[in-house]
TrEMBL record:
Keyword Membrane listed: yes
Keyword Cytoplasm: no
Subcellular location: Membrane
Protein name: Ig-like domain-containing protein
Native source organism of the sequence: Myodes glareolus
Gene3D superfamilies for the chain: Immunoglobulins
An annotated GO cellular component: membrane
């Protein structure tokens, strides 16, 4: 390609980028801010990442600040801003259980919250540094604790709707995910979150349907929210089978080169996906994550050539499960055994993308640390048992002291059966 053609293409690309920026600015010019601040209701599942766009702002405002309140009118307001040169947060760098102050980022006036938790539920305001609000959201993060899994292939049905007078509690399902595997039998699922309908909701909260909001919305009075606590999120699962897309024949050429270099006439083993190696000590737990996967993705796990279907390995299917898949698509192995050796393959959105080769060894001394889940569990059980024994011991002696004080303590030594 000549220098003139390259210059023309670069100019055209710059014009397209400038046009895109102008279009985004025109969106704010065409969208007036409401005179009375309203709240958009949005519901997500815990561990999901979500984005809140600032749909309107005055033309003279070049930067925005986001504010967070647990309840409307609360005296405690958290300021979320990037003014001091914060580095952009990436989802892959966010640790589980970290504070929201290290799990957010502001990009193009939109607020991004990574791996949201139930305590992140509340009201989010888009405004200026002076405290002027333009747009607001009512965010409901529903916990996956107690989530109900329904398997259509077994003839199971979702939870029935609940009625309490004028209160209607029901489940709203998302779209089906793609099949999590291709070329073999796989699974797909759809997530359902708790919603309710009631005519007595606050008019300040915008609703997609009349009088319908998520169960954890701030528009729901506390007396009604208590009635919805047993209606947990749902996961509807069914089997599927799709064909794989045609792939390029690059791997065959690579294998031919390996055959030629080895001069043995037999093909060496070459994995089609990246493989990560890990050595795990016998008897300790392990959690494996699929690279780039989020809770809303279709993720599947295989051990060597054996599929680990959610019908058998989903968390909660069996209380005594040692190997299971949680609702965030992570693979858990509790108390690793020698039989756990092998390659664990990860599928994402119907494509196998990575492998995890696990080795189990009994050698080496494992240092005890409170950061280890097994160590924490052992310490907690020991403390609980010690407190229980102490409580029983103290209770017996207090009762004996009370009996002797009031002269009503029975004399067991005088019982005829005991004298025998």
């Amino acid at each position: 390609m000549s220098l003139a053609h390259t210059t023309v293409l670069l100019c055209a690309w710059g014009s397209l980028q400038a046009f895109e920026i102008v279009e985004k600015e025109n969106i704010f010019q065409r969208t007036p801010c409401p005179a009375f601040l309203m709240f958009d209701n949005a519901a997500y599942l815990a561990d999901m990442s979500f984005e809140l766009p600032c749909h309107c702002k005055p033309e003279d405002v070049s930067t925005v600040v986001w504010y967070y309140q647990k309840h409307l009118g609360s005296s405690h307001t958290v300021v979320l801003t990037d003014f001091d040169g914060r580095l952009l947060t990436e989802a892959a760098h966010v640790r589980v259980g970290s504070s929201m102050l290290v799990r957010f980022s502001i990009r193009m006036f939109s607020l991004l919250v990574f791996r949201a938790q139930s305590e992140d539920s509340g009201l989010y305001f888009c405004g200026t540094r002076k405290g002027d609000y333009f747009y607001a959201y009512d965010v409901d993060i529903q916990s996956h604790e107690g989530m109900v899994a329904t398997f259509k292939d077994k003839g199971q049905e979702p939870l029935p709707d609940e009625y309490y007078g004028s209160l209607h509690v029901f489940t709203t399902f998302w779209e089906w995910t793609p099949c999590d595997r291709c070329g073999v039998h796989g699974e797909q699922w759809r997530l359902g979150l708790c919603y309710l309908q009631n005519p007595g909701l606050s008019p300040r909260y915008l609703k997609t349907l009349p009088d319908v909001v998520s169960c954890g919305s701030r528009a729901v009075p506390r007396k009604l929210r208590v009635k919805t606590r047993y209606h947990t999120p749902e996961l509807l699962i069914q089997s599927c089978l799709v064909s794989c897309e045609k792939k390029t024949q690059v791997q065959k050429g690579v294998l031919t080169i390996y055959n030629y270099v080895s001069k043995l006439g037999s093909r060496p083993w070459l994995s089609q996906v990246p493989i990560q190696f890990h050595q795990q000590r016998l008897g300790h737990g392990l959690i494996i994550s699929c690279p780039g996967a989020r809770p809303e993705h279709a993720v599947a796990w295989d051990k060597d050539h054996q599929p680990l279907y959610r019908t058998q390995y989903l968390k909660g299917v069996n209380r005594s499960m040692r190997v299971f898949i949680d609702h965030g698509n992570h693979l858990h192995i509790r108390f690793t055994q020698l039989s756990d050796r092998g390659i664990y393959y990860c599928w994402r959105q119907g494509l196998r993308i990575a492998g995890f080769r696990l080795g189990v060894t009994s050698r080496g001394r494992y240092p005890a640390s409170l950061s280890d889940p097994e160590t924490r569990t052992a310490v907690e059980l020991t403390l609980v048992a010690y407190l229980l024994i102490t409580a029983v011991f103290v209770t017996i002696h207090v009762c004996r002291c009370c009996c002797y004080s009031f002269r009503h303590c029975p004399n067991f030594s005088a019982h005829p059966l005991l004298q025998l």
